[in-house]
Amino acid sequence: MTSWAEATDSCKQNLVVHCQDDTSVSVTFDNRSSFDADAVHYALALHAPGLTARAAEIVAWIWDADLVTFLEELAADYRGWNGDRSWQTLDRDLTVTAVFRSGGHVGLTWSIRPWRQAAGGWSASVTTWIEAGEQMASMAADIRHFLAGEPQ
Fold it and tell me: What is the layout of strands, in order, in the sheet containing 39-48?
């Protein structure tokens, strides 16, 4: 397993994506559950110096364009692109924005905004940097396994 991610057990109950530039910045996927064949629920926590934020329930709809497909497309474009590329959940409680920088690195800004409609709602973001290509493809595969509840 590469240095950008770690799993706490063989069933991927918890997946941590670390920033390559600053390992104190991370995104944690955990508490995966599935109530039916159409959706997977999970929690997402963001960590950075002075910041810990958690969205207790993100929903990944199986029939919708998913996060893994977005990450796989980024991995396929390992030579780079101009501007930002973004993906978000159907409920818009998780948004991931990608930028490419010289040297073959991708910055993924993970933004959570639970309870968007509630008064006093909040949002938080962290950016993790990862090498384009193989590391991005490996991260996409690890997230696919986590969302599917498959052992690695």
Answer: 5-7, 14-18, 26-36, 39-48, 51-61
Q: State the DSSP code for 114.
A: -
User: Based on the number of CB atoms within 10 Å of its own CB, is 31 exposed (0-12), middle (13-18) or buried (19 or more)?
Assistant: middle
Cα-Cα-Cα-Cα torsion 37, 93, 116, 129, nearest 10 degrees, comes to: 170
Query: For residue 74, which phi and psi values (nearest 5 degrees)?
Result: -65, -40
Instruction: For the chain of 152 residues, list the mean pLDDT of each consecutive stretch of 10.
Output: 42 83 96 87 96 93 82 94 94 94 94 77 94 95 90 62
CB count in 10 Å sphere of residue 83:
7
Distance CA(106)–CA(36), nearest Å, equals: 34
Pairwise CA distance, residues 30 & 22, whole Å: 21
CB pairs under 8 A, 24+ apart, for 108-112? 110/27, 110/44, 110/46, 112/44, 112/46, 112/53, 112/54, 112/55, 112/58
Beta bridge partners of 58: 42
Indicate whether this model's pTM tops 0.70. Answer: yes
